[in-house]
Design a protein that fits this description.
Number of strands: 17
CATH topology: Porin
Strand content: 35-45%
C-alpha cells in the first residue's frame, strides 16, 4: 500500500515486523485476483508465539521459544507438525489476543506530524491489537465433532489466523494466515514429517528466524521515518497473495519446501481490509522454494539454506506494457545454543534481487531497464534465565542507482544501513500468566535504531541537509499476549 514509484516513502522497515505487513517502493507495483486461500478464509486459524499453543501443549512458552517469537528446536518441530501436537488436556478454545502499546521518539521531529492524528515527536500509540485462532483446526473438540476415528484425521489439520487492528492507521485487516495438514512417515528407514499448506505471506511457513516473515526486528515503530525500499520477498506481497505448497523434513536434517503464489483480486483484498492501490500484481503463479540443511554441532543446532521467489508482475496493476520480472534469491544460516541459563541465537541472511523492468521502463517509471537490490541482516539474540534479553542487528539495503525509482534520494540510490539494538524483560516467560487464563506472556522492550546512511545518502531524502541520524528512533513497547 502507499507505494509511490517516483518518490521514496517511509513504508519499509529494516527487517519485517512480524506480524505486521511491510510494503516496498516499486515502479507502480501491483496485485491481481486469486482464490487459493478460499478454504482457509472460511475456517478459523492460528499463529506463532501464542498462549493458545502453550495451552494446547500444556507447556510454558519457553518449551517452544527462547525469547518469543524466536523458535527453539521443539518449537520448530511443533510448527513442522502443522501446529497440531497436543497434550489433550486443555478445554480452552485455541484463541489468543495480542496488544502492543508503545512510545516513539525520533532524534529529529517530523514536520507535520509522524502520521495523521499524531504529533511531530514523542508519540504514544497502540501499535496494534491482534486476535488469533491458533492451534489444531478444530481445537479440543475434534472427537466430539467427528468421533474417535474421525478425530485422528481432523487433528492433523492446523490453522494459523490473525486479524489485526492497526492503531496508527486506525483500521482492521486480515494479517498472517495459514492452513496446514501434516503427517509422518518413513523413506528408506528415515523418519519424515511432511505436509501441505496454504498461506498469504511467502516465508510465513518457514521454521527459522532468518527468513523475512519471522525475522528480526520482530516489531517496531510505525511512527518514524524508515528506509523506502526492500526486496519483494521481504513483505512486499504480505496479505496481498494466496499461496499453496508442500514441504518435508527428512531425518530431521534435510528440509524441502516448494510452493507458488498468486495475487488476490482487488475486490477481495478490499473486503479483507487491504488497499490494493499501486501493488505489484503477480501474473500467473510465482514459484517459491526453500531448501535447508540442519544438524547438531555439539550442544548447538546449526542451519544453512536457501530460499527464493520468482515472479512476472504488472507494474501498478497496469498490464498495458507487458510484465516486469522480479527474482529474489536468499541465503541464510542460523546457529542456536542453550547452556544452563544462557540462550544464544545467531542469524545471518542475504537476499539478492534481480529486477527486469521491461514494462516499467516502457511506461517511463524507471530510469534503467534493469536493476539489482540486496538486503543483508546479521543478528545476535541473547536471553538470560529465560527473562532478560538483548538483541543486536546490523542491516544493509543496497543496489543500483535509479533516478526515477529513487527520485527522492539525493543520489538516486536505495542505500541504507545501520544498527537495531534492543533490550527485553519477560517477567512471565518461565511460569506463564494468571490461572484464569494460563500461559499468558508479556515482553517489555526498549529498541534503538541508528542509521549510518538513509535512502542513498548521509542526509535525509527530503534534501533538507540534516544528518541521516535525525531518523534514529527510540521505541518502547509492551508486547502482551494472552
Amino acid at each position: 500500500m502507499k507505494n509511490n514509484p517516483r518518490a521514496l516513502n517511509a513504508s519499509f522497515r529494516p527487517g519485517l515486523r512480524a506480524p505486521s505487513a511491510v510494503h516496498t517502493a516499486w515502479p507502480k507495483a501491483g496485485a491481481c485476483g486469486g482464490l487459493l486461500l478460499a478454504a482457509a478464509l472460511l475456517a478459523p486459524s492460528t499463529c506463532l508465539a501464542l498462549p493458545s499453543f502453550a495451552r494446547q501443549l500444556n507447556m510454558q512458552c519457553t518449551d517452544c521459544h527462547t525469547e518469543f517469537p524466536v523458535l527453539n528446536e521443539y518449537g520448530r518441530q511443533f510448527k513442522l507438525s502443522g501446529y497440531t501436537n497436543s497434550a489433550d488436556q486443555s478445554e480452552f478454545p485455541p484463541i489468543a489476543v495480542m496488544l502492543q502499546p508503545s512510545f516513539t521518539h525520533t532524534q529529529a521531529p517530523q514536520a507535520g506530524g509522524a502520521s495523521p492524528g499524531f504529533g511531530d515527536n514523542n508519540n504514544f500509540a497502540v501499535t496494534q491489537i491482534s486476535v488469533f485462532y491458533a492451534g489444531r483446526l478444530f481445537g479440543p473438540y475434534a472427537e466430539a465433532l467427528f468421533g474417535k476415528e474421525g478425530a485422528e484425521i481432523a487433528n492433523k489439520f492446523g490453522i494459523f489466523s490473525q486479524t489485526t487492528y492497526d492503531g496508527v492507521a486506525k483500521a482492521w485487516s486480515w494479517d498472517n494466515t495459514e492452513l496446514r495438514f501434516a503427517n509422518t512417515g518413513t523413506v528408506r528407514d528415515q523418519d519424515v514429517i511432511y505436509g501441505v499448506y496454504a498461506n498469504n505471506n511467502p516465508t510465513l511457513q518457514d521454521l527459522w528466524n532468518t527468513t523475512p516473515a519471522w525475522g528480526y526486528p520482530f516489531s517496531g515503530s510505525k511512527l518514524s521515518q524508515t528506509p523506502a525500499v526492500g526486496t519483494l520477498i521481504e513483505g512486499g506481497l504480505a496479505q496481498q497473495v494466496a499461496g499453496v505448497g508442500v514441504y518435508a523434513m527428512v531425518a530431521n536434517t534435510f528440509y524441502f519446501d516448494i510452493g507458488g503464489y498468486h495475487t488476490l483480486g482487488a475486490q477481495m483484498q478490499r473486503s479483507l481490509g487491504i488497499d490494493p492501490t499501486g501493488e505489484t500484481q503477480i501474473t500467473g503463479l510465482a514459484p517459491y522454494w526453500r531448501f535447508a540443511f540442519t544438524k547438531l554441532v555439539g550442544d548447538a543446532r546449526w542451519e544453512i539454506g536457501t530460499f527464493g521467489l520468482a515472479s512476472d508482475t504488472y507494474p501498478g496493476r497496469d498490464p498495458s506494457a507487458g510484465t516486469d520480472r522480479i527474482a529474489d534469491y536468499g541465503f541464510d544460516t542460523q546457529y542456536q545454543v542453550s547452556q544452563g541459563p544462557h540462550d544464544v541465537t545467531a542469524m545471518l541472511s542475504w537476499i539478492y534481487e534481480r529486477q527486469s523492468w521491461d514494462a516499467s521502463y516502457a511506461l517511463g517509471n524507471t530510469a534503467n531497464s534493469s536493476d539489482t537490490l540486496e538486503s543483508v541482516k546479521a543478528t545476535v539474540n541473547y536471553l538470560y534465565d529465560k527473562t532478560y534479553g538483548a538483541t543486536a542487528q546490523y542491516f544493509l539495503i543496497d543496489g543500483s542507482n535509479d533516478a526515477l525509482i529513487f527520485s527522492g534520494s539525493q543520489a538516486g540510490s536505495p542505500t541504507s544501513d545501520g544498527f537495531v539494538l534492543q533490550v527485553n524483560y519477560l517477567p512471565f516467560n518461565k511460569h506463564g500468566g494468571p490461572a484464569f487464563w494460563p500461559r499468558s506472556n508479556i515482553k517489555f522492550s526498549l529498541q534503538y535504531t541508528v542509521y549510518n546512511r538513509f535512502n542513498g545518502a548521509r542526509t535525509n531524502y527530503d534534501g533538507a541537509g540534516s544528518n541521516a541520524r535525525g531518523n534514529n528512533t527510540l521505541y518502547a513497547e509492551a508486547w502482551i499476549a494472552f
